[in-house]
Design goal:
By secondary structure, the protein is an alpha/beta fold. It contains 16 helices and 20 strands. The strands form 3 sheets. The protein has a 16-stranded mixed beta sheet that branches. The protein has a two-stranded antiparallel ribbon with strand order 6-7. A two-stranded antiparallel sheet has the order 9-10. It is globular, with a radius of gyration of 25 Å.
Length: about 550
């Protein structure tokens, strides 16, 4: 009997031993003396130099297709070459040209009923554009319909478009996912519970409206569900809007937003109460509501086609076989440029977003060159364009990869990491639990006595709002880390206060500049952790996998099965 029990226990013991060895492997690599020596290259002086340069007025806010882009690409090229990196494009250059379509739309819009005509103030009552390339795009008295959250999700048994003919209409929808309640709490089985799914993103709302044949989509903005104030959209919709042109389908004639005050007036014009309609939209028996108001818009378009640049550098792996497998560090180099309509300061310097992220990737690249024994796998450093316009540079790379995605082990993304207030005891993992990359990060963070916490605001959908998402959609495991909030000797309340202050007062504002009181010690610590993560990934035989629940696992499985 004892022998039989031992035989039954043996497979379990072997499994536990195997798991322990795997964990020991990650632990071994993040503690390797070579990586610990090399990380000393990541200093406050290095980070401050890169951030201050990229966020200087000379770079004009780093908008794609401008002089600011040219200066940024020149600086990246000089810096990576000086550090000893190789050009990352297999054609021997540092850049991947991403063809962009830029459209500047001058919008006029109004809402009409039999009893009322409301001429809306562009920028205040409504913002929006079109990516149609006609010189003028007009809608005249288009029918409108309220389609709740604008979600068609068969896996949740939810379809706000059921029984609706949206063709040629203006669809009005709410931002974020439907908050389904169960026993007084959010139902975790529906739309991620408190965590936003892709169905909650504004980009999905526009995409689904287009699939339904709508002429246009208007999203109702609310600060908490959206995750940012309306001012972010107001600044973002100033001037040229970029996209990757898709000639296979005609874009929406109008896509835009209205603040909650405009939504309340719109619903009142239709004899409806906005808050009651919003409540009804989360009912299982909700049906889209035709509106009696009509939408009229006129847009004069200025269109240009141009190439913007993804910048890519390469650190060559040393293993004869594994060097053809890749780790990618990503950060977006772009910001939103200049707004000449502003009085006083007109430059969106983007120091935090994303001067910090770009600087961390640059510092990590320099640290790799300090490794005395090199890395087994190759490491790519990808600074992408047009993130602020909808992750366009990352999307372009995902569609046109320079290196096979099926041989890309993982992506480490750094975007507005934002720790300018000192060392923290924690690190925030956006999308925590999505993949085994969390385990690698945990080992690296533990070295600095840090613990990992999930994003405190999953309802804002940050995982879907940065460049790594375009790789995740293609199936590549992606890690997205934010600075912690548990500040050493100052606590969590102070950390949250600093985060909130940035979001409310500096995010996508001209005030996002390098401040003289920035404390770089925490930024250095976090950058070194991410360097150790990339090094461990480049050395370990194991490929990090998506978790079973991750929505991207099936894509990866299909990719690797070929």
């Amino acid at each position: 009997m004892l022998v039989k029990q031992l035989r039954l226990m043996l497979p379990l013991c072997l499994l536990l031993y195997s798991c322990a060895k795997e964990r020991e492997g990650w632990d071994k690599y993040v503690h390797a003396s070579d990586v610990l020596d090399a990380q000393e290259k990541i200093t406050a002086e290095v980070l401050e130099k890169h951030i201050s340069t990229l966020a200087s007025d000379e770079f004009e806010g780093r908008a794609p297709g401008t002089k600011g882009e040219a200066k940024t690409i020149e600086y990246l090229t000089e810096s990576f070459a000086a550090a000893g990196l190789k050009p990352g494009n297999p054609d021997g250059t540092w850049i991947q040209k991403a063809t962009m379509l830029g459209v500047t739309s001058e919008l006029r819009a109004q809402l009409l009923t039999d009893d009322e005509r409301w001429v809306m103030k562009t920028g205040e009552n409504i913002i929006g554009n079109t990516y149609r390339t006609n010189k003028s795009v007009n809608l005249r008295r288009a029918d409108m319909i309220f389609c709740g959250y604008g979600v068609n999700a068969p896996e949740y048994g939810w379809n706000d478009y059921e029984g609706v003919d949206a063709k040629g209409k203006i669809v009005v929808v709410l931002v974020n996912d439907p908050p389904i309640m169960k026993d007084g709490e959010l139902d975790e089985s529906m739309f991620g519970g408190n965590a936003m799914t892709y169905y909650g993103r504004w980009s999905y709302k526009f995409e689904e409206g287009l699939r339904q044949g709508a002429a246009g989509v208007i999203v109702v903005h609310e600060t908490i569900p959206a995750g940012y104030p309306f001012s972010v959209l107001q600044n973002g919709y100033v001037g040229e809007q970029l996209t990757i042109e898709d000639k296979s389908q005609k874009p929406l004639a109008f896509q835009g937003w209205i603040p909650i005050e405009s939504a309340e007036r719109l619903f009142k014009m239709n004899g409806l109460d906005f808050q009651k309609s919003k409540t009804q939209a989360v009912s299982s028996d909700f049906k889209a509501v035709p509106l009696k108001s009509k939408f009229t818009s006129r847009m004069v378009n200025f269109v240009r086609r141009f190439s913007s640049n993804n910048f890519i550098a390469k650190y060559e792996g040393s293993d004869p076989i594994l060097k053809d497998e890749y780790i990618i560090y990503t950060a977006h180099w772009d910001h939103i440029g200049i707004n000449k309509k502003l009085k006083g300061d007109q430059i969106y310097n983007g120091a935090n977003d994303n001067g910090i992220g770009t600087a961390i990737v640059m510092a990590a690249a320099e640290a790799f060159t300090q490794l005395s024994e090199g890395s087994k796998r190759s490491v790519l450093f990808l600074a992408v364009t047009a993130e602020e316009q909808g992750l366009l540079g990352a999307k372009y790379y995902g569609i046109n990869p320079l290196y096979p995605l099926e041989k890309t082990i993982a992506v480490v993304n750094v975007d507005a990491m934002g720790n300018t207030y000192g060392k923290t005891k924690d690190l925030v993992v956006v999308g925590k639990g999505n993949s085994e990359l969390d385990q690698v990060l945990e080992f690296a963070a533990t070295q600095d006595k840090k613990y990992l916490i999930p994003d405190a605001e999953p309802e804002k959908g940050f995982y879907y709002r940065s460049d790594h998402f375009e790789f995740a959609k293609q199936g590549v495991p992606a890690l997205y880390v934010d600075g912690g909030i548990d500040v050493v000797r100052k606590g969590k309340d102070f950390g949250m206060e600093m985060k909130d202050d940035y979001t409310k007062n500096h995010y996508h504002q001209v005030s996002d500049e390098v401040k003289p009181d920035w404390d770089y010690t925490g930024m250095v610590q976090d950058a070194r952790i991410l360097f150790r993560v990339g090094y461990a990934l480049s050395q370990h035989d194991k490929w990090p996998a998506w978790s079973e629940k991750a929505e991207f696992k099936a894509k990866r499985d299909a990719m690797l099965a070929k």
